[in-house]
Design brief:
315 residues, Methane Monooxygenase Hydroxylase, Chain G, domain 1, mainly alpha, 5 strands, 10 helices, two-stranded parallel ribbon
Length: 315
């Protein structure tokens, strides 16, 4: 029985993009020319003869994780994320490599156009064999990433400044959006870092020592991106904590105002309760100046408390 991956390939209706890099020896592919090609996943059957039944069956039946090496071919897989576009969906990429052929197989036309543009740009600069194209492909994926992360950091600092000055509306939505973006970037770079590390230490005879060294360099670059993302996550966490602190300060200020109002009117409430007891013998009730005196005392209490609170800088 085919796995879900195999069923998606057969039906040509997957939810991810498939990038396939294949090479094979002349002995294994007699009568088949070496080729590099970009095509849609629905056209996978066209390149099946170049892959061989063993590799095709393994792709259909297995859930491949990061890098897996075999005697005649290697497989790499990861979720690709285009950080330079508004597209937030991750596209799964599978890379197959042996010795002769190179294929980029994509799920949709948009992804196919991107891969075709990327590979054409690489090959237009200088001729490249399959291993060189593999390394340059990953290198092109990272082009502009550090600049993007620097801009992301600058905008995040602007958010923090606006929040501290009280000029930022919808702060919660802004923080959530940035946390989600950084989480996608973290997952993206982590899986690439695993692939580069596993390729660098692999003993596959299909990949030269020079290619493994290049993968090690790419892994070091990915580590720098991961460190940058981690620092940005800490910055966003700091913004969230700052926002929560501001909310607490605002709530405390509101409670302080209510407390001051209560403290001012509490003595007046005591006077009202005292003279509202209606005892038979209360001389102030029948005194001519009782009401004016009570009014003066009430105003004096309010004025005295307000002056005291201002002296303590509570108002």
């Amino acid at each position: 029985m085919y796995s879900r991956l195999g069923q998606d390939i057969i039906k040509a209706k997957p939810i991810w993009m498939l990038f396939l890099l294949e090479t094979g020896t002349d002995g294994e592919r007699q009568g088949v020319d070496k080729m590099q090609k970009v095509l849609l996943l629905s056209e996978l059957s066209e390149v099946a003869p170049y892959m061989g039944p063993e590799a095709f069956a393994y792709i259909c039946q297995s859930q491949i994780e990061s890098f897996e090496g075999f005697e005649t071919f290697n497989l790499l897989t990861f979720h690709w994320y285009d950080i330079h576009s508004r597209r937030t969906a991750l596209s799964r990429i599978l890379i197959y490599i042996d010795k002769s052929n190179l294929f980029f197989i994509c799920h949709d036309q948009e992804t196919r156009d991107y891969c075709a543009k990327l590979t054409e740009a690489i090959l237009s600069e200088a001729p490249a064999d399959h291993e060189q194209l593999l390394c340059r492909f990953f290198g092109r994926l990272f082009r502009g990433d550090m600049e993007f992360l620097d801009q992301f950091e600058a905008k995040t600092n602007d958010v923090l400044t606006a929040m501290l000055s009280g000029k930022l509306e919808h702060a919660t939505q802004e923080v959530i959006a940035r946390r989600q973006e950084l989480l996608r970037l973290k997952r993206y770079y982590e899986q690439l870092d695993i692939i580069f590390d596993e390729v660098a230490i692999s003993d596959s005879h299909l990949l030269s020592a020079k290619t493994r060294s290049r993968m090690q360099i790419l892994g070091a670059r990915t580590d720098r991106y991961l460190n940058k993302v981690s620092s940005l996550q800490e910055l966003v966490s700091q913004i969230q904590e700052t926002y929560q602190s501001q909310l607490s300060i605002q709530q405390n200020n509101i409670m302080k105002i209510f407390t001051i109002i209560t403290a001012i009117f509490l003595p007046l409430t005591l006077l009202v309760g005292w003279y509202g007891m209606n005892f038979a013998y209360m001389p102030e009730l029948h005194w001519r100046y009782g009401y004016p005196l009570l009014a003066v005392v009430s105003v004096g209490i309010v004025a005295g408390l307000i002056a005291y609170f201002k002296h303590k800088k509570w108002l």
